[in-house]
Backbone:
């Protein structure tokens, strides 16, 4: 062990420099892929590529353990070099903390099935939080430390050649004092400038484009800004308002693979067809008159977030199937979204579950268009990619149907 350490520490400066470079590239790949994974915009654009991107993110994320381990082997010596440099020590702590925090929460998210929703929910919060703190920090760190700003003799990580030439002063004319203050002035000016320049737009971009919980619209805002225009509004049942579930706990992230659609009485309709005895079509005025039920259930997304105790009011799927009369040849229930793109399916047997609902109200509110309203599917026992938003058609077919995300690599088995 001692021999190994000795060998590792040979050419210490160069090794530290290589480690720093590799770590830098790993962080760049993780940051880019991570931001693309969380941005709604890329959901529709990437399609299947999104699942590959997620795989890449996981593999590179696991690889980030390698530089961390190598660094820890060299840490004792590096630490000595950092004597009297508290900010650089602080930086080492921040970077190690970020990497280890990302890694642990990332592994939990990757293993969402074995760890269950509670752990994935918390892991996602930590992963996001570290990203919104860590990304600006790392961008700042890289910008203020690029070569043109920082002479080799100010860096603590440098190559052997730089170490050898250490003795030669770079600005012999300037006194160390004025040299230092000028350098740090430039550094703070550039760093501050960048923070001022991209800070607000970064925040606004977070609010507008990302489906993340930090800075995303509140539930009340989502309900208030509902762009659907349907009359009459359904009268919530007593169990819905106030919601018998006590009000949902957690935040929905607004997901869509298309631009978010909205509907009016003129553009909305609902139908059940295919292998049924009585194909049926409803307009909004007819649909609001259908008898509804109320249920309380949890909602889990595979990416790690959940919303608990939702009070949904709507028509049980079973009811539609019963009234339309499913033909003996039917095998699969296929669901269509009014976005024109998204579909999913259940086997006839799965479709008999009592808690599957064609939902119209959530916690006493007509489901807003951001959340898939006026009518969406709810399949509480399965991951939410089964819960088709803007549901407008149920078709019974005699073949299998592979849904939008399943076709792009999501598990056919969506059981929570
Ligand atoms: N039409 C449509 N339905 C959809 C999706 C979608 O992109 N389009 N995303 C699914 C996924 S993966 C999840 S987690 C939930 C998200 O619902 P929310 O946007 O109301 O939070 O909707 C599901 N239904
Ligand atoms: Mo999801």
Residues:
């Amino acid at each position: 062990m001692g021999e190994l350490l000795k060998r590792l520490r040979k050419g210490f400066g160069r090794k530290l420099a290589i480690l720093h470079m590799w770590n830098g590239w790993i962080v760049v790949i993780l940051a880019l892929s991570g931001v693309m994974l969380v941005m709604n915009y890329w959901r529709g654009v990437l399609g299947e590529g999104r699942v590959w991107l997620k795989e890449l993110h996981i593999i590179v994320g696991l690889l980030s353990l390698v530089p961390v381990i190598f660094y820890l082997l060299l840490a004792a010596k590096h630490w000595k070099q950092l004597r009297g440099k508290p900010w650089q020590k602080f930086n080492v702590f921040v970077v190690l903390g970020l990497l280890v925090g990302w890694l642990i929460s990332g592994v939990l998210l990757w293993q969402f099935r074995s760890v269950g929703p509670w752990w994935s929910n918390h892991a996602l919060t930590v992963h996001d939080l570290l990203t919104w703190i860590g990304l600006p920090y790392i961008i700042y760190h890289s910008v203020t430390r690029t070569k043109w700003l920082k002479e080799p003799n100010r860096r603590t990580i440098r190559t052997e050649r730089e170490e050898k030439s250490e003795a030669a002063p770079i600005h012999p004319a300037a006194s160390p004092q004025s040299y230092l203050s000028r350098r740090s002035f430039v550094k703070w000016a550039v760093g501050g400038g960048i923070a001022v320049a991209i800070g607000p737009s970064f925040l606004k971009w977070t609010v507008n484009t990302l489906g993340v919980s930090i800075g995303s619209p509140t539930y009340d805002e989502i309900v208030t800004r509902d762009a659907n225009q349907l009359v009459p509004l359904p009268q919530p049942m007593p169990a819905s308002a106030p919601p018998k579930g006590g009000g949902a706990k957690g935040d929905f992230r607004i997901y869509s693979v298309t631009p978010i659609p909205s509907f009016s009485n003129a553009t909305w309709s609902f139908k059940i067809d295919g292998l049924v005895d009585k194909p049926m079509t409803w307009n909004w005025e007819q649909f609001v008159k259908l008898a509804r039920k109320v249920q309380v259930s949890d909602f889990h997304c595979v990416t790690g977030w959940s919303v608990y105790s939702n009070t949904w009011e709507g028509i049980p799927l079973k009811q539609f199937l019963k009234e339309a009369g499913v033909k003996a040849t039917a095998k699969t229930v296929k669901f269509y979204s009014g976005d024109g793109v998204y579909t999913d399916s259940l086997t006839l047997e799965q479709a008999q579950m009592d808690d599957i609902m064609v939902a119209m109200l959530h916690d006493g509110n007509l489901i807003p268009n951001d959340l898939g309203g006026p009518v969406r599917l709810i399949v509480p026992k399965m991951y939410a990619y089964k819960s088709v938003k803007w549901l407008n058609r149920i078709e019974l077919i005699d073949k299998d149907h592979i849904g939008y995300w399943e076709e792009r690599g999501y598990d056919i088995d969506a059981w929570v």
In short: Confidence is low (pLDDT under 50) at residues 166-180. The chain has two domains: 2-211, 219-408.
